[in-house]
Design a protein that fits this description.
Pfam families: Thiolase_C_1. It comes from Streptomyces solicavernae. This is Acetyl-CoA acetyltransferase. The structure is a single chain. This protein has about 400 residues and is α/β, with parallel strands linked by helices. It has helices spanning about 35-50, 70-75, 90-105, 120-125, 150-165, 170-185, 195-200, 265-275, 295-305, 310-315, 335, 345-355; strands at about 15-20, 55-60, 80-85, 110-115, 205, 210, 220-230, 240-250, 285-290, 375-380, 385-395. The protein has 12 helices and 11 strands.
Length: about 400
């Protein structure tokens, strides 16, 4: 037997975000979803300072019959690593986790994540209608015939939290009010005029207890994020934002299989992400949270550990979520005010990176001592709290 020592495996490569960008957002009546993908991708590549030839990994979902094959072809890319994971709004945090793992393992050097949608324009032009459900096959066949819409599922969960913990409709409205306050500083936000709690409560009821302003807006738009191996950083235009840790979790499809309406899958994905990043929730400087409805923000804050279960209502009061609050949340205005073209999770990553770089303009967050934020978390939710992906990012 040879006495030679077995060579140790190479340590995993560190992974950074090198480029982020949005396409034109809001009301975009003269572009296709493919064009928005391409616009966001070109802008993210320009932001990174890298040549497109370095891209050997590609991730996309939500467009075409063979996503991401069709989108990669449209962009002129021939990747050797691909991902088309589709788990709703959390898709992009889950894809970012997969991409970071692939880069760390040496399976890719630069992975482009890109998304684009003309959801608003398509409805306006009558190319599609609003969907009441995701389909009626499989387990969903037992719910869809009874009119159990996606919005109704979120509303039921919110009502349960209100019953269980005394959360008030005014506290839920505070989430919408503070998201709009953050949007006021974002020139890319679709709605920037301030709103009050009374105005939120006075709106038309969409699904009890949600009125219109408790629900996300519908917009057009796209986003792109470029993740790279650390050896590419000398060629990058900007300082890196590191991917420190991530987690993912799926919970249920049918409401009858959801153990507790007051606990989202972020309770698992968040714990895993923080553990793997080696940080605690109280060290985080800002949070970008999927907010298709106000209740999503509130319960995700609890499940990520920023407050105890049942205390989310009190936590969101007194401006805590605004740019100058104790925990700035959805600093661009979120899906409630900035933009929501569909699976919005990639926008969370773009905004988190911009904040850590100090590129958020009038909406820039600062630590109490005036320094730029150092740690951010992006947590996406898919379906009706069916899935969650959480990514911890750090500047340095």
């Amino acid at each position: 037997m040879s006495s030679a020592a077995t060579p140790s495996a190479s340590p995993p490569r560190k992974v950074a975000v090198a480029g982020v960008a949005l396409s034109d957002c809001g009301k975009v009546d003269d572009a296709t979803p493919y064009a928005l993908h391409a616009q966001a991708a070109r802008r993210a590549l320009a932001d990174s300072g890298l040549d497109r030839s370095v891209i050997d990994g590609f991730a996309s979902a939500g467009l075409g019959t063979l996503a991401p094959v069709e989108v990669a072809e449209y962009l002129g890319l021939r990747p050797t690593w691909v991902d088309s994971t589709s788990v709703g709004g959390s898709t992009w945090e889950v894809m970012a986790a997969h991409a970071a793992e692939a880069i760390a393992a040496g399976h890719a050097r630069a992975v482009l994540l890109v998304y684009g949608s003309t959801a608003r324009a398509d409805i306006k032009a009558k190319r599609r209608t609003s969907n009441l459900s995701f389909g009626a096959r499989g387990p969903l066949q037992f719910e869809v015939p009874y009119g159990h819409t996606l919005i109704a599922k979120y509303a039921m969960a919110a009502r349960r939290h209100m019953h269980e913990y005394g959360t008030t409709i005014e506290q839920l409205a505070e989430v919408a009010v503070q998201a709009r306050a953050n949007a006021a500083h974002n020139p890319e936000a679709m709605f920037r005029e301030p709103v009050t709690v009374d105005e939120v409560l006075a709106g038309p009821v969409i699904a009890d207890p949600f009125t219109k302003l408790h629900c996300c807006i519908r917009s057009d738009g796209g986003a792109a994020v470029l993740l790279v191996a650390e050896d590419l950083l000398p060629d990058c235009a900007k300082s890196p934002v590191w991917v420190l840790g991530s987690g993912e979790h799926v919970s249920h499809t049918t409401m009858s299989e959801w153990d507790d309406f007051t606990v989202s899958p972020a309770a698992v994905s968040g714990r895993l992400a923080f553990e793997r990043a080696g940080v605690r929730p109280d060290e985080i400087d800002l949070a970008e949270i999927y907010d298709a409805f106000t209740y999503m923000t509130l319960v995700t804050l609890e499940d990520l550990g920023f407050c105890a279960k049942g205390e989310g209502g009190a936590f969101v009061e007194k401006g805590r979520l605004t740019r100058d609050g104790e925990l700035p949340v959805n600093t661009d205005g979120g899906g409630l005010s900035a933009q929501h073209p569909g699976m919005r999770g990639l926008f969370l990553l773009v905004e988190a990176v911009r904040q850590l770089r100090g590129e958020a303009g009038a909406g820039q967050v600062h630590k109490p001592d005036g320094r730029l934020p150092e740690l951010a978390v992006a947590s996406g939710t898919g379906g009706w709290f069916c899935s969650s992906g959480t990514v911890v990012l750090g500047r340095g």
